[in-house]
Amino acid sequence: MTDTRSTCPYCGVGCGVIIESEGTRITGVRGDPDHPANVGRLCSKGQTLHLTAADSVARQTRLLHPMQRPARGAAPVRTSWDEALNLAARRFNGAIATHGPDAVGFYISGQLLTEDYYVFNKLAKGLIGTNNVDTNSRLCMSSAVAGYKLTLGADAPPACYDDLNHADCLFIVGSNAAFAHPVLFRRLEDARRANPDMKVIVADPRRTDTAGIADLYLPLQPGTDVMLFHGLLHIMLWEGWTDAAYIERHTSGFDALKALVRECTPERVAQVCGLTEEDLFTAARWFATGASTDPQARGATLSLYCQGLNQSSSGTAKNASLINLHLATGQIGKPGAGPFSLTGQPNAMGGREVGGLANLLSAHRDLANPAHRAEVAALWGVQSVPDKPGLTAVELFEAAADGAVKALWIACTNPAQSMPDQRTVRRALQRAEFVVVQEAFTTPATCDFADLLLPATTWGEKEGTVTNSERRISRVRAAVPPPGEARHDWRIVVDFARRLRPGNTLFPYDTPESIWLEHRESTRGRDLDITGLSYAMLEQQGPQQWPLREGLSEGKARLYEDGVFPTADGRARFAALPYKPLAEPRESRYPFSLTTGRLRDQWHGMSRTGTLGRLFGHVAEPAVQLNARDMERLALADGDLVHVTSKRGSIVLPAQASEQIAPAQAFIAMHWGAEYLSGLSSSGEPLAGVNALTTSAYCPSSKQPELKHAAVKVLKADLPWTLLAVAWLPDDRALATQAELRALMGEFPFVSCVPFGRERTGVLFRAAAHDAPAPALLDRLEAVLGLDAPDAQRYADRRLGQRRCARLSRSPERGARLEAFLLAGDARAEAWLKPLLQDEAPAEAYARRLLMPGASAPVEQAPRGKQVCTCLNVSDSAIRTCLARADGSDEERLAQLQTQLRCGTQCGSCVPELRRLVRERDTTPA
């Protein structure tokens, strides 16, 4: 077995991993104990990385050869790399020659490596002469970029992970770190144990598991963050809690901000934000003083924030207004203090470093600055870099939908799932004359729109670097060779560039290091100067933080400790930006505020995590969460189907009561795209997951869309005919079978199609309609699930639109086991049939009841419960039963729980939920 040190491809924490491999196979993964980001820890997603790379998964999901679609709507056929790249060069050159360089665009990804990002940026801006290169990081981090630059002068998070160990007050806003950054949240829990006096404030419309750790929870109304921050500053000024000396020595523009917040009185802020004045005063005091009881000896306050601030039509204002608080109180440039933006993707930071956004250039240079453009042109050896701002993500797809952008190149991202306003995005992908998708997997929905599919390498096969949230650069290393004909992303770009402009000398690279060295030189003298860093240092000394200038042996953990900022006068700038309401506030026709967010065990569009049934144990199917009072008012029970409708679209999914959701609010996880949740509009148009609802309205400064909020209405769906099909599948056919089932999803007004299982792989297909569909459709469904076998038991009543089918396996060792079933027209038996199959329980006693409409189980079953611990498959019912016998304090009860069931003792991702269950003190045995 071979061990290879690399980096996790999920969130921006940047955890180090050790990949275990044998020959060409990845066989295991474990946390790297020497990596400073995670010190050996991994979350539930990271711990299963090797399973997503297993041969049985790869054979069914990987794109292994270049594929060309001979015509729109036709199946793609295999082609050669030469033919594929020559075709791409002809089509892009044709669009450029006819319509100009801005007729093409590139949409790339924060999951690319820094070296990949650099060559894409150079291809567009240096070779083609267009700034139309943007990234899905626009959807998650561009407001943080704009906020840092506006106030501090550079896109540079000033804090680091170690600051958790020095903070006296944590202010967490717009971040469910317990789910989005689990390993960092483990470090937060450790810091809290080491410093029991630490105060934690969490501001979030939802009472998330992150809020469970709060000493003070602020359930503010969606979109009111700027008003909250202005109100806190108003109180700080009134009470004398600002740091006048720091303001005088190190900042500018404070008078304008004071004038702006004068009207943000506690009374007004409480009313707008939906908070109490008492809580506002407490939050202001803790933040300003670092929760110190001695105002003369200020403690340290660290802010952690993420998409709740960024994904907003006021994203820049939210970021800047929070940074204002740090500057006004001197809570920056010292251990345990500072505004710390948490990146969502593994290399969103690296993409920002190389200028991988439509308004940026290499090394944090501004496209609008003529001197910066001249510096980059000189470095690249081109006459000039175009000065016209490029189209950002939303603008790029709107332009393609309008016919202005003729050719699109999409790499390592899935806009047909992740972009807002999916109707416009899909129209863009259909109208563009030529669409290239550079991708490792065949499963993302965007692949369905590609004229040309180019197979790329992925985690475990790539070489290069990434930068995490704390400015730490880590090496990504290959443990196994690329499968099939897959090529590295940077190599695909270089090969294309050489064909696009034969004879050009801009792309001489033959290794990722040769690209990185040019990137390193571009940083010389800049705020992110890494001229003292090398691949050799990363190999010998491990991950390093920037800046790390030539002649230094290590980078800086914290920035601005000397109070000098990268601005013209060396002072930080207060940003006096007014509070503005949501782009789409709720109103009488759309009375609910819909927020989106992450699930604990899934990541982004689930092209990787969605291949593992075990990662669906915690949240098995899509749902819209509502407050119990709203459920009662709408006469809804858990599981009832509802239409969730915005001004852009409507989707159908089950409703679910949740204590985390406030009245008049709703929540749907961001991950549910058309691959897992689909249906038909009233006009028969296919609908595309949660982003059929979200708005493309964006922040005017950062151009980041307001994915976090949309105004919606919720109405009970009249879909009386229901269907449930559940089956175990052969490992070597499971994912392919799911793909076949997805081809049937558009036949119903509502469908969810999700995997399940731990040691085995299964699939669940749930649908609903107004009336029973044609029998031929159910025949197709049965055939896909192997229910058309001769030994399957079946029952049908065409008059009532009902059908039942079941298949059992029998063996001398295990007896009869249920392998697959279908309930059409009457799915009431789900309550006992689904656990009978999923638990692989003996089924002989149930045989006669399998086909009886509405039959109940012959023996009483204990409720299965919801999975809480993914690592050890521990359910909430088992946890409650254990807690009923536990005694002592909450910590003692938690310890007893972990000792007896071992839940929360491996990756720790479930610990916040365990704490919530302990606090409930539900002592009724399940």
Automatic annotation (TrEMBL):
Q: Which UniProt keywords apply?
A: 4Fe-4S, Iron, Iron-sulfur, Metal-binding, Molybdenum, Nitrate assimilation, Oxidoreductase
Task: Tell me which GO cellular component terms the UniProt record holds.
Answer: membrane; oxidoreductase complex
Q: Which CDD domains match?
A: MopB_CT_Nitrate-R-NapA-like (cd02791), MopB_Nitrate-R-NapA-like (cd02754)
Where on the tree of life does the source sit, at the highest rank?
Answer: Bacteria
PROSITE patterns named in the record: 4FE4S_MOW_BIS_MGD, MOLYBDOPTERIN_PROK_1
Record field: transmembrane: none
Residues annotated as domain 4Fe-4S Mo/W bis-MGD-type: 1-57
Family that this chain belongs to: Belongs to the prokaryotic molybdopterin-containing oxidoreductase family. NasA/NapA/NarB subfamily.
Q: What is this protein called?
A: Molybdopterin oxidoreductase
